[in-house]
Structures are given as structure tokens and as C-alpha cells.
# Entry
Amino acid sequence: VRTEESVTELGWLRLIFGFVFWIAFVLLLVWVWDTTGNAIARIQTSVVEGIPLREGSKLVPSEILTGIGVFVALLLFTAWFKASLSKHWLREVGLDRGARDAVTTLVGYAGVIIAAIIGMVVAGVNFKGLAIVAGALSVGIGFGLQNVVNNFVSGLILLFERPIKAGDFVSVGLIEGKVRRIRIRSTEIETLDRQNVIVPNSELVSTQVTNWVLHDNIGRLRVLFGVAYGSDTQKVKEIVEQVAREHPEVMTQGRAPEPLCLFMAFGESSLDFELRVWIRHIENRFEVTSDLNFAIDQAFRDNGIEIPFPQRDLHIRSGLDSLDPDSKASTPASD
# Structure
């Protein structure tokens, strides 16, 4: 187990051992203080036969404890089954990471629901009363839980349609990063600053989402630059395209076009060019852009090509004498 991963089973085991410890501790105190033995007998009878309640019903602690035990055992089995699916069985089938995450997530939620139902049946829960509670909850869902239900349904849509999956590089509004985990209610995105942003699933379904790697990891990159007037434009084109070909991330063969340098415009202070390249991993576009800028600058220095900066020429057409203070001092005084 890696240190950054949380183990759910350990939490459940800690809870179970804590519960058993305190029950045993209370029973030990009762056994020590009860000299006649009647208290232990009454506790045993109440636990096994139940505690009478109103309207002929009774609460049976032994059944409740058994139901809780069955529920926890089924949860542990579900966690083991999910881990086996993700790490072994689904890998052997050949499913990618996104498909494995979708299947294991659905299996996990289905396992929790089944474990809860079986646990309540073993605990002797009256499902007729639960039907009334479910009716009241439906009214609450209609008013106060609309967002929760919306996110839940949106999570199912994301898991079945898979417009995004774990590991994809996406942009959602101002958020850009890699999808780490898709849950039923929300999706976790890790930004380039290593910040984990929780995005509601309803936002991913109802708004525009850019998936940079939906079908593959390649993408086009544009690098803008300018050279001084009087530069050899053909030489500039050859140098820049050669620099691009030498970068390991830039694709030079296959279905992607080769690097292309375009003469875009005559700018105010420069001849404007644009380098278009296809790179193997679009999520690395910032690093590749920086590398190409460094390489282009060095290549221009080696070949004597100047990268200009904005310049302005000022022409004074009239009123030059009024701007020169010495001209006033040299003017002879009139008689």
C-alpha cells in the first residue's frame, strides 16, 4: 500500500474493534459490580429476546448487532472485490484505466446498497415503516435535495458515457488539470499547481468541457515570434523548423503534419511569424513552448538574426525654436 493512499478497510476494522472493546468493558464492569448475577442474566435475556416497545413491537439487540456485523462484513467483501476487479480481473480483460474506474465505482455503490439492504433484513427492520419514510424523503428530494440528485444522476451519466475519465487532461471554465477521480457526486481535478479542485458532476454535464486527450494525447502547439525588418525570411523559416524537428516531443512523421513556420504579417516593429507543431503529449504544451522559445532565441543569436523591440521615430515639423531655450537668450533686445 502506498503512503498517499487511504485504506477504507482499516477504518472499518478500527470501528469494529472499538465497538467490541467498549461493549466488553461495560459487561466486565457489570460482572464485577453484580454480586448476585441477576444483572448479567437480565442483560442476556434482553439482548437475546428483545426489549419490549409500544404497540407490540420490540427491539432485539442481538439481531441489530448481527445486522451490523453482516453489513460490515459485506462492505469489507465489496472493498476486496473492487480491488481485485481493478488490479487483476479488469486488467486481464484489457480495459483502460477509465473503464476500470467506472466499473469499480459502480460495483462499489451497488455493493454498499446491497450490504445495507441485507443488513437491515438481518436486523429485523420493518420495511413498511421505511416506505413511509421514503415517501417523506421523496418530498424532501423534490425541494431541498435537487442539487444532490442532479449531481448523482450526472455522475451516472459520466460513468456510463465516459466523456471524461481518470487521467484525462481537461479544462472546465478557468480550471485546467488532470482528472484524478470520478465519484457519483463530484469529480476531483488536480491543477497544474497541484491543487485538488472538487467539481460537481452537474457542472461537467451542463457546461462546456474541453477534453484535450479524449481520443489521443497529441495536439497542436502554436509559437508566435518576430524578427527585425531586413532579416532573411527564408533563413528564419529553415532555422525555426529545424529547431522544432530536434525537440523530442514534436512529431515529425506519422499522421501528424511536420513542423511548419508561417510568415503571418508585417508588424509595426517586426516581421511576425508563427510556428505550428504537433506534440505527442498536449498536457506538456507549456514546457514544450518554453523549450522551443529558448531554442529559437539561441538559434537566432548563433545566426545573427535580431529579435526586435518596439521603436518609435519622432519627427518635429515646426516650432523648433520655441523648444530651444538658448534661442531666446541669443535674440538681441530691441531699441
Notes: Residues 142 and 230 are 71 Å apart (CA to CA). Confidence is low (pLDDT under 50) at residues 1-6. DSSP finds eleven helices and ten strands in the chain.
